[in-house]
Write a structure and sequence with these properties.
The protein has about 350 residues and is mostly helical. The protein has a single domain, classed as ABC transporter involved in vitamin B12 uptake, BtuC. The chain has a two-stranded antiparallel ribbon. A hairpin with a 2-residue loop joins β1 and β2.
Amino acid sequence: MSTETQSEHARIDDTIAARREMTWLQSLTRTQPFWIFIAILILGVIMSQVSGVFLSERNIYNIARNFAFFGIMALGMTAVICTAGIDLSVGSLMGLTGIVVGLVMQAGNSLLFGFFAGMGVALLVGLTNGVLIAYFRMAPFVVTLGMLAIARSLAMVISDNRMVHRFGPDQELYLWIGGGSMLGVPNPVWVLIVLTAVFWWAFNYSTWGRWVFAVGGNVQAARLAGIPVERVIVSVYVVNSLCAGLAAFMMVGWFGSVTNALGMAYELNVIAAAVIGGANLMGGVAFALGGPIGALLMELIRNSLLLAGIGALWQQFFVGLFLILAVFLEQIRNRGRT
């Protein structure tokens, strides 16, 4: 084993040991998701005084349902960003996946068949992105920007630029899955909770999660340490696309219809949610809870602007502002550690 390989193993082991030595509270307060959560609480307190509607059961339900879709997508994007990658195609992939699901079910097929058809398309797109980036050494920005255009165009072609609003014999079940609730909690939130738990375990305890962080931290050292870098990179793009496909499947069920415009410009919100939640664009740093928390903050901003009577056109302004602020704070923390 080479000296550099030994050093990389030692660095990873030292990092894990240092995390274990910190108390639970110390470990928590050093993470960006913790401070974003504090910001969410502060914003909630302010809005509860500004608007009497904010804490109403209906408004809380809507906030929970709306942010869940972006939270699901942000989980996959977090894994991609952790490897120092980016995926600009997730919004267009949502449109393509939603159209495929709608057309398959409209043809009289079952809900299960429609689900697997949509997820199969998502898998293919993620695999294509990952292979081109990992094995052909193409830039993630270029590959996924190209896939953004390809997926959107395919959605328009196969749908003939028409809305799909009939979902065959399982339509009622599909509408309940996307727009219904269990125990007063929207179904998409339950899906987000389960996926967040899976990602938390994967990031903290699985070999795959260890490899993802290693690749993002130092790809050359990871390769010398025997980590299958190419396969890891392909895997994160596949996971990300599957998360986008799942979000599209749930969202179409909520809307009750789908057009090829589904997911238009969503990639900015998804990337912003992951970065605001603590994912470092340089790679090597990410939190499973970060993406959903970032998505929740963004939905609260959108909801608060509407309740405060501020035009919806300001939404992207504040999303961009929080994104820049999150990256700025991350840079300050990094300087403090060196």
